Batch of 2 targets.
Target 1
Amino acid sequence: MKKKLTGKTALVTGSSRGVGRLVAIALADLGCSTIFCHGRSEASCRETARQIESRGAKAVILPAELSDPAQVESLADRVLAAGGVDILYNNAAVMHPWRDSPEELSFEDWAWSFQVNVFALVMLTVRLLAPMKLKKWGRIINLTSGIDKTPQLAAYGASKWAVDKWTDDLAAALAGSGVIVSRLDPGWLKTDLGGPNADHEPEAVLPGALVPCLLPDDAPGGSFFRAQELRNFSLD
Ligand SMILES: NC(=O)c1ccc[n+]([C@@H]2O[C@H](COP(=O)([O-])OP(=O)(O)OC[C@H]3O[C@@H](n4cnc5c(N)ncnc54)[C@H](OP(=O)(O)O)[C@@H]3O)[C@@H](O)[C@H]2O)c1
């Protein structure tokens, strides 16, 4: 793998496991110098950090519960105090339990889904934009989903729809700034969130998940990438 991101810094939310861990380690392989690992606890991030450091990059663990706005602010404060990041990989998300009908979704299902998957993502992004704009370079990747016509997971699905809408609006605001925001559907993967019946092993998210980090400076914002359509993308 060529070191196409030499010297860049990145925050990967939800990098204690699943897609986030794979992306964080792959960013180290691509030459990122510092990667901020995030999960809800320091212990959960240690293995990701170990694998990043074994590749010669620096790993900084920043725990935060994203349903708590104060912890989202604190996460942003800690990243900004370290100089901000070039790449913000908004990967962390929750999925409420399967409900047999839309009427069975609780207020908590809706609130939790939007708090973690939308509000935390938006607040973190707006806090971390300033240094990217100053440098006139940044890549923001928002994890979305191909979930469709699944009323049993309606609050999760709607939260991803909101992420899509936010990505569109943010892309318009960032046009010409050097900061490119994209969204990525990883495909249905056998992670803790995707479950054991998913179509693909977690590793199938690579290399596609890296494509929006590697966009040329004249690429349009708001693009929708599907990792499973990018399985043959060459990183060389
Ligand atoms: N897997 C799929 O099939 C699939 C399909 C479409 C889209 N996606 C999207 O892909 C992304 C990654 O999913 P995944 O399958 O890798 O999920 P995962 O294996 O369940 O990992 C979720 C990550 O998010 C963190 N997280 C969960 N709840 C959190 C909270 N309340 N506060 C802070 N961090 C929290 C977890 O940290 P802890 O270790 O602390 O819990 C973990 O690092 C998500 O945005 C998901 O919606 C996944």
Target 2
Amino acid sequence: MNGKCTCGPSTGMRSVFGSAYAVLVFLPLAVIMMTSAWDRQDDHGKLTSALVLIFYSVLTLQPVLAARLKALDRQFGLDIVYVFHKTMGMIAALLQICALAFFLADPSGHVPKPAWLGTLLIIMLGLSAFLYRELGLTYESWRRLHNVLFAAVFPAAFLQAWGIVSRMDSLPLAGIIVLQAVVAAAAYAYHRFLGPAKRRKTLYRVKSVSAEARNVWTLTFEPRENRERFDFLPGQFQFVTFDQGKGEEHPFTISSSPRDADGHSATIKGSGDFTKTIGMVKPGDLVGIQAAFGRFSHLLEPGEDRLVFIAGGIGITPFMSMLRYMRDTGEDREVLLFYANRSEEDMAFRRELDGIAALAAPRLRVVHVLDAPGQEWQGERGRIDLPLIEKYAHDFRTPLFYLCGPPPMMNALAAMLIDAGVPAKRIRTERFAL
Ligand SMILES: Cc1cc2nc3c(=O)[nH]c(=O)nc-3n(C[C@H](O)[C@H](O)[C@H](O)COP(=O)(O)OP(=O)(O)OC[C@H]3O[C@@H](n4cnc5c(N)ncnc54)[C@H](O)[C@@H]3O)c2cc1C
């Protein structure tokens, strides 16, 4: 529990994962192309088989990508893995629609029933992912629907692929298709049932609930029965499942320092239908926790001495964890924190930040920026922009930037910094949306 980084990404490992993914996607096709039955098909048949098999392989890898595997998070970050999952979902839908079009164009006029069903279900999966709000669904109910639709589309995809196996009469292809189904089912079962069941056996207790600022609360958690807490890097996040691990699951940054022996915390702003009720959580309540994820941590950049943190509102949480860790370990880095809020009542951790800024290490300077301050406010006003950054950060193209806040603010700042000559690879971002 020391927050020491032993788990950085490596280009080699990333290439291994990328190549493994490509191999798995094309494996059934490669196997079938080596059979004599493949050569007996006309071009139309070959293309249809290829589409069906690639679609099936992409679909079987979707639950693996969604399963929050630590090895993938370590190399790419869970946010990137989820973006890839969404992109491959769209590609899968396109492949299935093309496969159906090819079946329809087949001179025999035979369209297998699983092709119709698979297309209908994958279109519903795609539309619900993009339009769940317009359909009046909450994120949670959309997620449940997403899981049910996947469980329905998968057998259709299997039967469609099995149709190719039967036509080609290929035992190796049959073996691969079944193996892919087993891997997909195992990943799905682990993510949906086994993982949550395991976490319900190792619940955490809410130790305290305290108001941090207007509409912001800090919840501190401790493991039950003298169990060890998980290890994490400052800046990483956790998934918290309320109501004894049976209720809604939400991602929250761990706002405490890994060195804090009194438990770990989440600082949460009431912003939506669930988080608005967070102040009603009581000490003693039990929650399930899955942690730790993410690559938004200064510890992954040991050689960087000058850091600029830019936080908007509740986006302060990963920075609190990093700064608390620097305080606890006496880490001597130069940190300039810009912290934007609407008004003074919205500023969380103000006194604690002042305390850290008064220390010799880290060398922290905090610049509060208020959008709608009171008359007596002496500090910066308005929005964080380039002139403001230049005012406080000498030679602002050299430090490493970390941004966390509302998406419009982050997008505008990242674009502004890049336009001003800061290389994109020197800007780290954490988005509070997966
Ligand atoms: C990596 C990460 C770290 C975060 N850290 C913090 C933090 O430290 N403090 C904080 O206050 N908030 C944090 N959030 C945001 C927090 O997870 C959402 O505000 C919260 O889940 C919204 O739930 P809601 O039902 O109240 O709001 P809603 O209005 O229902 O949802 C608002 C948006 O939040 C997202 N969301 C909602 N429910 C979920 C869910 N179950 N799982 C994933 N995303 C969901 C969706 O993008 C949705 O559009 C973080 C999010 C991420 C991804």
